[in-house]
């Protein structure tokens, strides 16, 4: 026992003496070569330093100046490394600080820390002035604080505690981000993001949420003062977003974008602020497909397809396959529009549609129509209000201008393009339709269970007026209908100008008639047409190409009815030798008589012949 006690005492004395010698040497100019020699003996790989910093007052803290560690074909170099060992956690390292390191992640092998023991634990890892880069991106001025780092079996170890990162700048995919901050802690299946923020140009971006493999779920995303100043910037952002991992779903519980401005080829927007809830971006799904989202927004203006929408304001929800527009309003041109309702692919339920003071045309409506998925099979409008609008069609083939359009619709229901229920009235101050001037046109139409009643349809001409009324029962398979027409001083030129009928006539006519029939199909119409019509011609004339040719009027009318119109530039007007026309239809057999200086008869059984038969 005495010998064993002496051996133990001698061993303790040797250890204490060795430690004392090492401590003494670390305070001399031999500290660096001594450390390099000892480290190569004790550590895997090769560790060399330019200088060792050590003081007896902090015996468990060591500072290495310009350490260089080579292992597994990987060379780690830093400006300074400090480590501290706490006796309570020995042999693990209490904290480790690394300053001034440049790491090419693309040059590292698959397991760059494989020389370190898997059981190594560091209570806190501090990084300062670190640069990380690959051929595609670079991060500079990186600082980090990683709590409870464990080597384990992972290539870069695992952080079991809180992780805080600060990056001065991050450049990649043509985008430069600055002042990046990330504060996170591990959760059961991933990481809880306590806070993340960054700067892009003049924009501030911040977020909180949770990440796990395959899913990034953000509770809050805020973007302020973003400016997309060119089409090139938009394309750079689109390319960067296209690099998003295709196996990762992004969800955002709430996104707030404040004061966004953009100027691109397709769209311009100024001071756009919007808030969106329950966003979801899934792989292989278009970004605009949102199964459950609510969006509210406002802006100074939005310019698209040549139209400037001022002060747009909206509150829209996406639920399954429905879009609910709680509010959508905007100033447009010198007017205003508003709409609210619920929309699905085959059913639009519009609570309110209002448009005031707008000038519309086919060219302006085509881009909006292209955005719509198609005409729904069912359309209902609780309230339709159009005030002081204008319609323009500048086509030389059929120039149209209708000014002062007012439309009031209540409880409208349309199915498969047919009015089923509702009341609609429409009027205008004046109109010019293919060079035909109209004053105060008016329409009143009502429907109950697919039974339509045309109460009144009025067209005011410079010296006369045309009035129509009628009804049709769309609920019955045969679709019976009736129509009454009454007009004074109606220009004869409307038939060619509006309907392209081959009737080169000029002057006026009075008209009165009653018609009825069936509209279930073409055959029902042909065999069911009944009615009478009386026409009186006033100061009427017809176009004639060659005045030297005195064709009988029966031949001229036959040419017209065959579609052989007279070119206006090569014609002159001759008086029409008829003062009246009487027409009767009995179950599709039409008989007409033109009377005046001459008399012509016409018979046309429309259920048998495609053209009428004229006789003198």
Kindly describe this structure.
- With 616 residues, the protein is mainly β.
- Among the domains are: 148 residues, no CATH class; 156 residues, no CATH class.
- Helices cover 13% and strands 58% of the residues.
- It contains 7 helices and 39 strands.
- The protein has a 39-stranded mixed β-sheet that branches.
- Strand 30 and strand 31 form a beta hairpin.
Structural descriptors:
58% strand, disordered N terminus, 13% helix, 39-stranded mixed beta sheet, mainly beta, 616 residues
Oligomer type: single chain
Strand coverage percent:
over 45%
Helix content: 10-25%
Q: Give the terminus-to-terminus CA distance.
A: 153 Å
Q: Which radius of gyration do the C-alpha atoms yield?
A: 44 Å
Q: What would you call the structural class?
A: mainly beta
Query: Which segments are poorly predicted (pLDDT under 50) over 5 or more consecutive residues?
Result: 1-21
- Give the overall shape: rod-shaped
Q: Main β-sheet, in a few words?
A: 39 strands, mixed
Mean pLDDT: 86
Number of strands: 39
Number of helices: 7
What's the short story on this structure?
The N and C termini lie far apart (153 Å). With 616 residues, the chain is mainly β. 13% of the residues lie in helices and 58% in strands.
């Amino acid at each position: 026992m005495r010998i064993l006690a002496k051996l133990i005492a001698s061993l303790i004395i040797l250890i204490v003496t060795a430690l004392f010698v090492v401590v003494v040497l670390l305070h001399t100019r031999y500290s660096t070569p001594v450390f390099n020699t000892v480290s190569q003996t004790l550590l895997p790989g090769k560790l060399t330093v330019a200088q060792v910093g050590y003081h007896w007052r902090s015996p468990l803290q060591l500072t290495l100046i310009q350490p260089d560690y080579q292992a597994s074909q990987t060379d780690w170099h830093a400006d300074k490394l400090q480590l501290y060992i706490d006796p309570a956690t020995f042999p693990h390292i209490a904290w480790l600080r690394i300053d001034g390191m440049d790491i090419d992640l693309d040059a590292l092998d698959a397991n760059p820390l494989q020389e370190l023991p898997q059981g190594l634990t560091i209570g806190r890892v501090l990084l300062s002035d670190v640069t990380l880069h690959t051929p595609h991106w670079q991060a500079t001025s990186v600082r980090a604080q990683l709590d409870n780092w464990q080597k384990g079996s992972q290539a870069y170890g695992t952080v079991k505690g809180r992780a805080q990162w600060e990056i001065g700048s991050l450049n990649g995919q043509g985008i430069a981000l600055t002042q990046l901050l990330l504060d996170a802690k591990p959760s059961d299946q991933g990481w809880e993001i306590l806070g993340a923020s960054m700067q892009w140009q003049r924009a501030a971006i911040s977020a909180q949420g949770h990440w796990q493999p395959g899913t990034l779920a953000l509770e809050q995303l805020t973007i302020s003062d973003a400016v997309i100043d060119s089409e090139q910037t938009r394309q750079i952002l689109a390319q960067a977003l296209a690099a998003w991992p295709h196996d990762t779903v992004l969800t955002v519980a709430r996104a707030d974008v404040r004061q966004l401005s953009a100027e691109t080829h397709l769209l311009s927007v100024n001071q756009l602020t919007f808030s969106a809830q329950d966003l979801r971006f899934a792989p292989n799904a278009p970004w605009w497909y949102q199964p459950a989202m609510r969006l509210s927004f406002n802006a100074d203006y939005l310019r698209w397809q040549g139209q400037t929408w001022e002060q747009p304001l909206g509150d829209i929800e996406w639920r399954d396959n429905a879009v609910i527009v709680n509010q959508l309003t905007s100033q447009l041109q010198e007017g205003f529009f508003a709409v609210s309702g619920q929309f699905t692919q085959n059913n639009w339920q519009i609570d309110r549609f209002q448009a005031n003071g707008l000038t519309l045309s086919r060219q302006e409506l085509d881009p909006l129509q292209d955005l719509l998925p198609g005409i729904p099979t069912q359309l209902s409008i609780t309230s339709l209000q159009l005030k002081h609008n204008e319609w323009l069609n500048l086509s030389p083939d059929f120039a149209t201008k209708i000014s002062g359009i007012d439309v009031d619709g209540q409880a409208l229901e349309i199915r498969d393009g047919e009015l089923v229920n509702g009341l609609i009235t429409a009027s205008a101050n004046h109109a010019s339709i293919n060079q035909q001037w109209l004053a105060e046109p008016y329409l009143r139409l009502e429907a109950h269970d697919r039974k339509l009643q045309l109460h009144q349809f009025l067209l005011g001409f410079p010296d006369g007026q045309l009035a129509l009324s009628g009804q049709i029962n769309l609920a019955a398979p045969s679709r019976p209908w009736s129509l009454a027409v009454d007009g004074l001083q109606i220009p004869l030129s409307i038939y060619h100008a509006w309907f392209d009928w081959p009737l080169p006539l000029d002057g006026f006519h009075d008209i009165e008639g009653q018609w009825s029939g069936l509209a279930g199909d073409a055959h029902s119409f042909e065999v069911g047409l009944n009615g009478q019509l009386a026409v009186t011609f006033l100061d009427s004339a017809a176009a004639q190409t060659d005045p030297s040719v005195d064709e009988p009027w029966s031949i001229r009318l036959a040419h017209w009815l065959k579609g052989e119109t007279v070119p206006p530039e090569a014609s002159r007007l001759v008086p029409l030798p008829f003062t009246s026309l009487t027409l009767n239809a009995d179950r599709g057999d039409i008989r007409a008589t033109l009377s005046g200086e001459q008399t012509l008869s016409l018979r046309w059984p429309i259920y048998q012949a495609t053209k009428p038969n004229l006789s003198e």
